[in-house]
Write a structure and sequence with these properties.
Elements lengths: L1 H8 L7 H30 L8 H24 L2 H28 L6 H25 L4 H36 L7 H25 L2 H28 L5 H27 L3 H6 L1 H25 L3 H11 L3 H15 L8 H16 L1 H26 L15 H25 L22 E9 L3 E3 L2 E5 L3 E8 L9 E2 L13 E8 L4 E4 L11 E7 L12 H9 L39 E3 L2 E18 L2 E8 L8 E4 L3 E8 L8 E2 L18 E7 L4 E6 L5 H6 L3 E7 L8 E10 L1 E3 L10 E3 L1 H4 L6 E4 L5 H4 L2 E4 L3 E10 L4 E5 L6 E4 L2 E4 L12 E3 L4 E7 L4 E7 L2 H4 L4 E7 L1
Parallel strand pairs: 1-4, 3-8, 10-13, 12-17, 18-23, 22-30
Antiparallel strand pairs: 1-2, 4-6, 5-7, 7-8, 9-10, 10-11, 13-15, 14-16, 16-17, 18-21, 19-20, 23-28, 24-27, 24-29, 25-26, 25-28, 29-30
Helix pairs in contact: 1-2, 2-3, 2-4, 2-5, 2-6, 2-11, 3-4, 4-5, 5-6, 5-7, 6-7, 6-8, 6-9, 6-11, 7-8, 8-9, 9-11, 9-13, 11-12, 11-13, 11-15, 12-15, 13-14, 13-16, 14-16
């Protein structure tokens, strides 16, 4: 819980936060708890307590589990897949070992009425290794269709299986104990039947998911839901004898209700929409927060005071401490889970943010209350020990009486909880009223009466960067509802309206509904994915009057404010260029690491007499410093503006795996390969991957870059790199450097994924042809403050590539002369040539490359520049420090 709280606080700076938080709950909180308490309950129910010397093995299993969790998180954050595989092996081994130990206890124990509970634990423990393998497969990268199927199988085995079966078995005895009442007579028989039914449902779901048979998966889920319904029926009949009176009972009941409701929802949604990752992600909140966390905290609320003991008075006092504000906390948690589970287009972003904070606060209130209860228990235990020492008599430990909480206190807590969440919703709306439909900006709804009618239109985002239709007519006063479908198989799109309404990002094949409010005038819309609007993804709402003619726009409140303050409307040209005020004499920021300009050696493994280079390019959309004070929301290969350099020789084979971890479509185009572009250079959707193979048949320095439209935007955002193929017989030199020039075109960032960026690429500025910054190796000042080095008399080779997207380079070293020039696969000048000719510059058009060689006869500091001096003054410069 401590690590989870830290991640929640710093989530903006942590990659894959959603995955991390979910697994901190499911593996960190829940799985640790299951390993401890299933062992405890097994010993109690079977009356087969392990000897003390067996505790070492139990602790070893817990340590193995937690080592696996740490390795798994490290594998995710580092993107080292072998760590993820190792983690799956460690976690699976720990639970298989745990299940084997419980099975051994079950076989050696005397017959027991409650042995069925231990059977639930054993089956559950053996399901988790299966889920761990499926988790490792998910992390390997696969097409979206396969990903959705594997994800459903993974969640069926881990959430419905491992956790669900454990909870179902525990409820047999724990639920009546929490309620302080007797078990229902038929509960043992019903629970015994539920085990094979639920297990069979899980296995059927896994088989159906992995085979792609939707109806088989739906049948499996429905069978599981039937077994779960039987368990819930036993709970309801038990509660009819005595209702819950504290947080433990309220939280357990709410958690099981979410469990059943979410299972029924997934049966219906998989049946209606098939294997869909978006559906499973939408159900994450009710499964994790509604079911798992509430059941866990409810159980702990009851078990901790009882297990810690300290005498009747102590247990009673600890219970009172850990159950404080019970109804208030339960109401807040469940209302927040309910709201957060709504589709994103139904809950404005700021409301979601406030609701999530409220829910997290209500959950984490358990921690200080637990600490308070633990202190009471410890003090009571110490007092009991002291008492026994004085009297030399054992202290009796009868079951403490239940604190009677007046119903009025629970009623007040429930009302306070509802009002707190309602206030949170109001605060979220107040922070951004437009997103909640309360802003009367561009649609001018406040100037016309509402008709009470609704106009619903179907709009699709299509390949070729367009909306179909690109405009719709809506009668003035009607409410507009847009049903947006993304028919582009490779790209994420959205629809943003100038009135403040947005669809959010829509994955390929997905359909969302946008309620655009009452229309009182024309409204402009567009796709806000960078570059898509420039490529033609515009959308117009035409307001028509009763006579069928278009209604002109009335100045909106937002437009009037913009006019008086100089602010720009959403989606219009920003006022300031974040690069204008850059101090190009300043040093890079403290957190920036200078990119080594040294060209690394030829790498790759030799197989069957040929060198093979296997490379993975992971697309990431993260913040990068590209000049002092300029933090760009960059699109990168392997996490850095300017991707990794590949270095090989003629005849080498390259096998490149592209993994799209971004939020939109991306691709890669290798100029070093001569192959048909249709397959390997295609745009792939988020979550997908492809393998790109080519042979290096010709030498030179070659560009690679994202070829997804608009290419200039993707390249200016950082998606490019170099492939150096050495000419045959290339002589060795003392130092060999690589400089890749690129330029970018910037606007101030308004809202970014991580909140750190202050700049984004502005596609409309590319056409204007005036870069904001021109850089070598992805940063404008790095080699001014961390120069290249050489010694007098050494031979220095400098490879240069003009990556663009639009500017070339005239590479010049001030004070130096080139005696060797190699450009675009041909040697233009060599020391062995006739005469004493030299060169002062290497001229390269965009995407061209080559190298120069020179020697320095005197020590000193030699600047290198793009001698198109306007580009040098935008950052295309650096230094070479020559020592004696």
């Amino acid at each position: 819980m401590g690590v989870l709280l830290v991640v929640i606080v710093v989530h903006r700076w942590v990659p894959d936060t959603r995955w991390l938080m979910v697994h901190l709950v499911t593996l960190g909180l829940v799985t640790n708890s299951i390993m401890v308490w299933s062992q405890h309950f097994s010993e109690s129910l079977l009356k087969n307590r392990l000897p003390d010397d067996a505790r070492g093995r139990q602790l070893a299993r817990i340590r193995l589990l937690n080592a696996g969790i740490v390795v798994l998180i490290a594998g995710l954050l580092s993107t080292w897949y072998w760590l993820i595989v190792l983690a799956a092996a460690l976690i699976g081994s720990a639970l298989a070992w745990h299940g084997t130990a419980l099975l051994g206890q079950l076989r050696t124990a005397l017959p027991s009425r409650f042995a069925v509970t231990v059977k639930f634990y054993v089956v559950a423990a053996f399901l988790l290794p299966v889920g761990a393998v499926l988790g490792a497969v998910l992390a390997s990268g696969m097409p979206e269709s396969w990903h959705a199927r594997a994800l459903l199988a993974h969640e069926a085995t881990n959430v419905l299986g491992f956790v669900g079966l454990t909870v179902a078995g525990t409820l047999l005895t724990l639920w009546p104990t929490i309620l302080r009442t007797r078990m229902v007579e038929t509960s043992t028989r019903i629970t015994a039947v539920a085990l094979p039914v639920m297990t069979g449902g899980i296995m059927t779901t896994v088989v159906g998911s992995l085979s792609g048979a939707v109806w088989v998966a739906v049948v499996g889920l429905a069978v599981y839901a039937g077994g779960l319904a039987a368990v819930v029926l036993v709970m309801v009949r038990t509660a009819a004898r005595r209702r819950p009176v504290d947080y433990a009972g309220f939280s357990m009941a709410a958690g099981v209700a979410w469990w059943l409701a979410t299972t029924v929802a997934i049966v219906w949604l998989v049946g209606a929409r098939g294997f869909d990752t978006a559906v499973l992600r939408q159900l994450t909140a009710p499964f994790v927060a509604g079911f798992l966390a509430q059941v866990l905290l409810g159980a702990m609320t009851y078990l901790l005071p009882v297990t810690m003991g300290g005498g009747p008075a102590t247990v009673r006092a600890a219970r009172q401490a850990i159950n404080r504000a019970a109804m208030f906390r339960v109401v807040v948690i469940n209302l927040c889970v309910l709201l957060f589970s709504l589709p994103p287009d139904l809950l404005p972003p700021w409301v979601r943010a406030v609701v999530s904070l409220l829910g997290a606060a209500a959950f984490f209130a358990f921690v200080p209350l637990m600490v308070s209860a633990a202190r009471i228990s410890v003090a009571g235990r110490k007092a009991a020990v002291a008492q026994r020492a004085r009297t030399d008599m054992p202290t009796p430990s009868p079951v403490p009486p239940t604190e009677v909480v007046p119903p009025s206190r629970h009623a007040r807590g429930a009302v306070a909880g509802v009002l707190t969440v309602a206030l949170g919703v109001v605060v979220g709306i107040a922070l951004n009223p437009a997103a909640a439909g309360f802003d009367l900006r561009a649609q001018g709804a406040g100037l016309v009466p509402a008709t009470g009618r609704t106009t619903t239109v179907q709009v699709s985002a299509e390949e070729g960067m367009r909306f179909e239709p690109a405009s719709v007519e809506v009668p003035v006063g009607d409410e507009l509802v847009v049903e947006l479908t993304n028919n582009d198989p490779t790209n994420v799109h959205d629809l943003v309206l100038a009135s403040g309404f947005s669809s959010g990002r829509v994955a390929p094949g997905q359909t969302v509904t946008v309620d655009a409010g009452v229309i009182g005038g024309p409204v402009e819309g567009w796709c806000s994915i960078v570059g898509h609007r420039t490529m033609g993804m515009g959308f117009d709402v035409v307001a028509v009057g009763a006579d069928g003619t278009a209604v002109d726009a009335a100045p909106s409140a937002a437009q009037e404010v913009a006019g008086h303050t100089g602010m720009h409307a959403v989606g219009s040209e920003p006022a300031a260029d974040p690069a204008v005020a850059v101090d190009l004499d300043a040093a890079p920021g403290d957190r920036f690491d200078t990119r080594s300009p040294a060209l690394g050696p030829v790498d790759g493994a030799v197989e069957d007499g040929r060198r093979i280079h296997r490379v993975e390019l992971d697309v990431e959309e993260i913040t990068q410093e590209i000049a002092p004070g300029v933090q760009l929301q960059a699109w990168t290969y392997n996490g850095r503006y300017l991707g990794p350099t590949l270095h090989g020789q003629v005849g080498d084979l390259f096998e490149v795996t592209l993994v799209n971890g971004g939020s939109m479509g991306h691709s890669v185009d290798f100029h070093a390969g001569a192959i048909a572009p249709d397959g390997p250079m295609r745009t792939i959707a988020p979550g997908e991957s492809l393998v790109y193979r080519f042979e290096a048949t010709r030498s030179g320095i070659w560009l690679y870059h994202c070829s997804t439209a608009p290419m200039s935007t993707h390249l200016a955002s950082g998606m490019f790199g170099a492939v150096v193929i050495d000419p045959p017989g290339l002589p060795a030199v003392d130092r060999e450097y690589l400089l890749v020039q690129s330029e970018t075109y910037l606007s101030p960032a308004e809202d970014t994924a991580d909140g750190e960026a202050n700049a984004v690429v502005a596609p409309e500025k590319v056409a204007q042809g005036v870069p904001s910054l021109t850089m070598f190796n992805g940063h404008a000042t790095q080699y001014v403050h961390d120069p290249l080095t050489a010694r007098t008399g050494e031979r220095v080779r400098i490879w240069v590539l003009a990556a663009g997207p639009s500017k070339g380079v005239s590479f010049h070293v001030v004070g130096g002369q080139f005696d060797t020039v190699y450009k675009e696969g041909a040697s233009l000048l060599s020391p062995s040539g006739t005469g004493q000719g030299g060169a002062q510059a290497l001229d390269l058009a965009p995407s061209q490359g080559g190298f120069v060689e020179l020697e320095f006869s005197e020590p000193g500091t030699y600047p290198f520049v793009n001698h198109s001096l306007a580009e040098a003054e935008r950052g295309a410069r650096g230094l070479i420090r020559v020592s004696p």
